[in-house]
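pls ignore typos typing on phone
KG4 + seq
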Amino acid sequence: DTPVYILSIESSCDDTAAAVLQNAKVLSNVVARQEVHEQYGGVVPELASRAHQQNIVPVVDVALAKAGITRNQLGAIAFTQGPGLMGSLLVGSSFAKSLALALDIPLVAVNHMQAHILAHFIDEEGFDKPQFPFLALTISGGHTQIVKVSSFFDMEVIGETTDDAVGEAYDKSAKILGLPYPGGPLVDKYAQLGNPKAYPFTKPKVPGLDFSFSGLKTQILYFVQKNVALNPNFVQENMNDICASIQYTIINILMDKLKLAVAETGIKKVAIGGGVSANSGIRGTLKEAEKKYGWKTFIPKFEYTTDNAAMIGIVGYHKYLEHTFSDASVTSKARIQL
Ligand code: KG4
Ligand code: ZN
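k done
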């Protein structure tokens, strides 16, 4: 069989990304991060769209060049249809449509959240692909879900956050501690140097498989305010222990629900996806769960955890195999279900 080359575009939030896949293998995976948002402490949608528009053509050119592929060799174009910021999504979809029309090749619309899960099906040496059915924990700046994945396109959300996403919990905690946006990776960095039991934060009581993180954020805010009133340097002096305690609490919340999901479904295969799965504590705890609970866990390669286009490409490839194509009237969607 002759291989198919798929160009994929991801522009749902603040990263402009393009990748080229040869079937399930990634030939190139390029991301242009937008630093403009740092000074605002969060993503500014209007600035994100503008930066996508500046970045998209160069990012695609670099992805093609790195893959050693010309536009004329492409067999399909995949792009993120949603969920995400509308203005950001529109840049990627308009670009993908124009190029697919110009090259007269199929266009494939991809759900960003499916892509975070199906990133596990990229061919990558040293990484096993999960077998169906498995449970996926998707943890990002916008989502926190436990998904029962029965086949490539048969997914059921069995638990989700009722307020903030895990990534938001990380980023908002980091902001309270005076760390720059996005603070998740920094909290993780300091957490590795601190005592996780230094400051016991309480876990929220949420029924079933759902999550809540807004209470934790408030708890951390009051905790910091109270201590800073007594010692203005409290945060600087105890950064490692505070971060370790926050991380410990968040991981416990996630693990409690995962254990419940495994018990309820009888499925012991657990895959993680989304930006927060880059977290060292979560990765370590899941690895331990293999021995401790007899689970099989799947942790994606680092570059496929935060937003990237390779994950859009792998979904594109599987839709291509099924001939699930879109025509040029396909529209971006800020919200879509799995
Ligand atoms: O999937 P992603 O790149 O974008 C969204 O779709 O939201 O996730 C970004 C989120 C941010 O909240 C960021 O702080 C968080 O992932 N994140 C981390 C780590 N790396 C990224 N949170 C905790 N620990 C990390 N190592
Ligand atoms: Zn994402």
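The two ends are 31 Å apart (CA to CA). The chain has a mean pLDDT of 96. more later
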